[in-house]
Each structure stands twice: as C-alpha cells, then as structure tokens.
Amino acid sequence: MSETTLPAIAILGAGSMGGAILSGLVQPSVHVDGGIRVTNRTSEKADALAELDGVTSYALEKTPDAQGRALAGAKVVIIGVKPHMVPDLLRDIADDLEPGSIVVSVAAGVTVETFESLLPESVSVIRAMPNTPSHVGKGVTGLAPGTRSSDDDLALARAVFETVGQVVEVPESQIDALSTISGSGPAYVFYLIEELTRAAVDKGFTPEQAATLVNGTFAGATELLMQSDKTPEQLRIAVTSPKGTTEQALNVLQQAGFADTFTRATDAALTRSHELAAGS
C-alpha cells in the first residue's frame, strides 16, 4: 500500500462511523502531521481510543474544553455525532475552527446549507457518506463539495476517506440517493445472507454449516466479480444453465418482483432521508 501524508485531523464524535474512519487513519501507511484528536462523551470510549498510536482522545465528561483542544491546529474536522446533535455542535465550535479548515460531515440528512449557515465563511464544508465496511478497509464513501470548498479541499477529503476504501464524488443533489445504495447497501446484503442462511437451515444444515455455505458463497461471488472483467449479469448467466436448477430458482425470484422490490426499497430510503433533512 502506498504511503499517505495528511495534515492534523479532529474527529468530533468517534462513534461507529467516526471510529471506522479513525481505523484507516492509524494504519502504518498513513502519516498524520500534527496528529489525530478525537472526542467522545464518555471516558470509557475516550480511554479506549487513547491507546491508539498518534491519537489524542478527549472525554467531554472529564474535559469541558475538549472540543476546543481537539480543533486547535486541525486542518480537517470530521463531524461524527448523530444528525440531531449537529446544529448545536456547530454553534459550539464555530469560534474554535481554524480559518481555512475543512469541516466534513458524515451525518445523514444534514445539508451543506445547514453547515455553512452555522460556520464562519473562512471554513469550507464537504458532505461525506461512508458505509460500515469502512471498518475493514472495504468501504465506499460518497463525497459532495459545498459552495465554499475548493478542488484542493475535495482532494484532501478524498485522501482521508481513501484510507478506508473507495470514494465516489457526486454533487450534493445525489448524496441522499447515494446513501440509499452504498450507505444502506450493507444492510440489504446482510438481510439476503440472513434469509439464505435460514433457507439452508430449513433444508437440514446446521447453523455452522449454513454460515459456511452462505457466507463463503457471498464472499466468493463478490471476489469473483471484483477480479473479473464481466458484468454481474454476465456472471449470473454463466451460472444459469438453461432449464437447470438455478434457472428455476431465479424464475421464482423474478415472479416475486425481486427487481421491483429493490427500486421500491431504495425509494423508501430516499423519502426518509428527505424527511430527516426537513427535520421530521
């Protein structure tokens, strides 16, 4: 893996997504000049992260000025708190942000407009939508620039998120739609795995055998797709012999409206994302 050098970074709210990003930043191939500063509400969470090399971790319950300390000298500031907590946090930190810093939001449904309205004009804003496979370096992150961010700002944000996987740059108008695909996508995959595992158990396999059969099949099929120059459709056809068992199974899925189900599911997710952005 090639080496990456990044400027000082602050992560405010190193929970699930913030923690995933942190896992990429502490890899031996990544050098963060000025260090990484993270904040959490409790000492329990903060103490665990303090053990990571190059990380300074603060607990808000013990250090009242933790956010100001984390932000001092930080070029990139990742906002990892829950969406409903974002406005109050931005008001609290507005005066502590370094001029020229880049504030990156991973909060679903909170718009660039909201961020920019609450932060100084000297600060640029970028929206990011990572997903949970970022925890194992296999994430997919959508990045959307704000009205004040430059190409260099976007490139720096991209470098940060490339430490945990792949990055797709989109306009903000597409970031919510992206969240219904890659953001929510792992849940769709896990649900399919759950149901295929249940079907295997129903056919007499032990739970351990079913997990080996199903988990291995999903992992192998995904790796085959990644290493192949063929499309998913071409690979599916290659498995599907005319009038064979796989064709019969696929016929049932097609007759059940499987394809339309994904359209309706992602549409429902997009509607809810818009509701969250509107505060409902």
UniProtKB/TrEMBL annotation:
Catalysed reaction, written as an equation: L-proline + NAD(+) = (S)-1-pyrroline-5-carboxylate + NADH + 2 H(+); L-proline + NADP(+) = (S)-1-pyrroline-5-carboxylate + NADPH + 2 H(+)
Coiled-coil stretches: none
GO MF, one example: pyrroline-5-carboxylate reductase activity
Pathway: Amino-acid biosynthesis; L-proline biosynthesis; L-proline from L-glutamate 5-semialdehyde: step 1/1
Domain of life: Bacteria
EC number: 1.5.1.2
Keyword Amino-acid biosynthesis in record: yes
Location relative to the cell: Cytoplasm
Residue intervals of the Pyrroline-5-carboxylate reductase dimerisation domain: 172-276
Main location (coarse class): cytoplasm
Keywords noted in UniProt: Amino-acid biosynthesis, Cytoplasm, NADP, Oxidoreductase, Proline biosynthesis
Class in the EC hierarchy, top level: oxidoreductase
Pfam families listed in its UniProt record: F420_oxidored, P5CR_dimer
Keyword NADP: yes
InterPro entries: 6-PGluconate_DH-like_C_sf, NAD(P)-bd_dom_sf, P5C_Rdtase_cat_N, P5CR-like_CS, P5CR_dimer, Pyrroline-COOH_reductase
Residue ranges of domain Pyrroline-5-carboxylate reductase catalytic N-terminal in the record: 9-109
Role played: Catalyzes the reduction of 1-pyrroline-5-carboxylate (PCA) to L-proline.
UniProt xrefs under PANTHER family: PYRROLINE-5-CARBOXYLATE REDUCTASE, PYRROLINE-5-CARBOXYLATE REDUCTASE 3
Family affiliation: Belongs to the pyrroline-5-carboxylate reductase family.
Protein name as it appears in the record: Pyrroline-5-carboxylate reductase
Organism: Paramicrobacterium chengjingii
